[in-house]
Amino acid sequence: MTRSKMPFTRRCFIRSLAVLSAASPWVLAAERRPIEKPIPASGETLPVIGMGTARTFDVADDPQTMVQLAAVLRAFFDHGGALIDCSPMYGNAERILGQLLPMADGRRRLFAATKVWIDGKEAGIEQMERSRELWGVKRFDLMQIHNLRDWRTHLDTLKAWKAQDRVRYIGITTSHGRDHEALQSILEQEALDFVQFSYNIEDRAAEERLLPLAADRGIATLINRPFQRGDLFRKVGNKPVPAWAADYGIASWAQFLLKFIVSHPAVTCAIPATSKTHHMIDNMGANHGALPDARTRQRMVHYVASL
């Protein structure tokens, strides 16, 4: 039976991947270049699939969990990943990342992105320095203001740090689809390198203003909540991925949903989070192959809406 006739669910893909990995764990990833998009502010390129850490890396550092998460990190890097996004808001996540990055041999390829999430200038500086120590990096590639918190105060600091080469890029974030009006106003007025917000195949509000505005202003975009915290997987259930998706290298629902996001011309990178290696490998499949065109994107929307 040809691949185009064989329905693939996320579960089927993971089972087949386990068979391939037993013989040659990362050979497929090693032979393929990741899809990359430029950061408008510099022209530097990033792989379109990054990694979030909310909840998934906020864990105790028991040996079993650490081995599991080290494998997740290694799979991320071995399949072409670079950008990892974190925040002091995520409990132990920054500390766990700092302990695991050397085990995953990831510092050479890492694009380190975190956030400041506190009120006050001095408190913000102390928090950002603490994050740098926890990660074990000389400087962050990207520092973001988390959920607009005390953004005017922190933006002054970040602009100064960027001028001093203490951080490479600066940005601002929101999530849950909230604060879009306030975020839009900030993007219209301030010189930022990155913006982060929620966007997925069912929550497409960002297509109305935020994505076009980011494109007009030359701002890179990071996309959180690509799976609606798992709601989209519950929606598609065990239904098959459409056979025509294979034309874009899509072999699972995770890849279908991620490729919809990163195929938007104004999207730079999506940051799904997982604590399972097989899910990471599945997600990173969207980091390779072709991106859907505008017509196919509409077809994807209609297909998911019909389920």
Plain-language structure description:
By secondary structure, the protein is of the alpha/beta class. It has one domain: NADP-dependent oxidoreductase domain (TIM Barrel). 41% of the residues lie in helices and 14% in strands. The chain has 12 helices and 10 strands. An 8-stranded parallel sheet has the order 3-4-5-6-7-8-9-10. It has a two-stranded antiparallel ribbon with strand order 1-2. Helix 3 packs parallel to helix 11, helix 4 packs parallel to helix 5 (121-135) and helix 7 (180-189) packs parallel to helix 8 (210-217). It is globular and about 55 Å long.
Architecture blueprint of SSEs:
Elements: H1 10-23, H2 27-30, E1 36-38, E2 45-47, E3 51-52, H3 63-78, E4 83-85, H4 93-100, E5 111-116, H5 121-135, E6 140-145, H6 151-163, E7 167-173, H7 180-189, E8 194-198, H8 210-217, E9 220-224, H9 231-236, H10 253-262, E10 269-270, H11 277-284, H12 294-306
Parallel strand pairs: 3-4, 4-5, 5-6, 6-7, 7-8, 8-9, 9-10
Antiparallel strand pairs: 1-2
Helix pairs in contact: 1-11, 3-11, 4-5, 7-8
